[in-house]
Amino acid sequence: MFEKISRIWKVKELRNGILFVAAMLFIFRIAAHIPVPGVDTSGLKEIFEGNQLLGLINVFSGSSMQNFSIVMLGVAPYITSSIIFQLLTMVIPKLEELSKDGDYGRKKINKWTRYLSVPLALMQSFGMITLLQRSAGNVLGDIGPVQMVISMLTITAGTVFLMWIGELITEKNIGNGISFLIFAGIVSGLPTMVGSTLYTFDKTQIINLVVFAVIALITIVAVVIITEGQRNIPISYARRVRGNKVYGGSNTYLPLRVNQAGVIPIIFAIAIILFPPMIAQLFIGVQTAWVAGIANWVIVTFQNQVVYGVLYFIMVVAFTYFYTAIIFHPDQIAENLQKQGGFIPGIRPGKNTAHYLQNIVTRIVFTGALFLGLIAVLPLITAQVTDTQSMVIGGTSLLIVVSVVIETVNQINAQLSMRDYDEI
Fold first, then answer.
1. Does residue 77 contact residue 122 with C-beta atoms inside 8 Å?
2. pTM of this prediction?
3. Which domains does the chain carry?
């Protein structure tokens, strides 16, 4: 391990990239402690600790929601915008064609995603301020129209700032910038969580702590297995004779990962499952009785851990399939193999190859999605037994943290391997 760290440090580009990412995350954490002007945040901590929904949102904002900071929304608007555009890509033919148009199409869709993130940030900032006002009582004080507009603009600017930081991090080819920001937000809360646990430690909590440690280990091992697991499809290249030279004739394989979507399904699932109760909180105090009744029913329903767990499981599985369908194109792979003279032994080139690859991916993704969904709800099940709600947040956080770490390590290893190849 120390030898690899030494190799990474000796490569100037990698060293500078890692230092740059660390600097950007440090700036993010500073911004997470800068409160929105004119808001008293002294009483918000107790509110977030006593509300499960707000507590979960706070974890993924890196405690910036609790501080009512200028980046309190994190990258949630950008994630929502990404979900919208990926859904539109599947139903609008022009967008689908653009998504297949290589780097140009990707940049175009990313630009539109950033544009949509701004109005979404404005709407979500208004919703969160209203939600906190109704949940926190008089803690936020009397926010008038002018203060509301200033707060919304400030929070939206903070989201745009984080989007920019995320893109800068992604350009360093060390990991996904958006995932890094979520990772940093989760990890930043670990010292406080550990300190609080040690400060309030009681002998009666030993069993709960042991159960939590076992769940953490199971989650880490399971995520590593699923993330690293792959099915190797054998590929053969036909021999081609040109003049006195013979090309091809080699055998290789096409790796198909069990979970090609990585951490994205978990992030998408959390973003969607938190949306209904958050919206319902805005309508709980309206004058219209039936609207308030529906809002109350939504809140009560989502507070039911069984309903929450089932929906969470379904969302993780569904988004794993959904995102895999977006990033994996068997027709394109089959076409490229045919152009290069490659084929899968026993399978006809062209449509038959694409159909074969699709069937393989469908089967292995089912295993990955099912296992990932089970790991996601395992802490929820244990929380019901131990009556410790922090395990719900801890299990979800571990899923994201482990996946981001694996993705980062893989990208660094890929860059090291590429440099070794160049030196040869």
1. no
2. 0.76
3. 1-199 (1.10.3370.10)
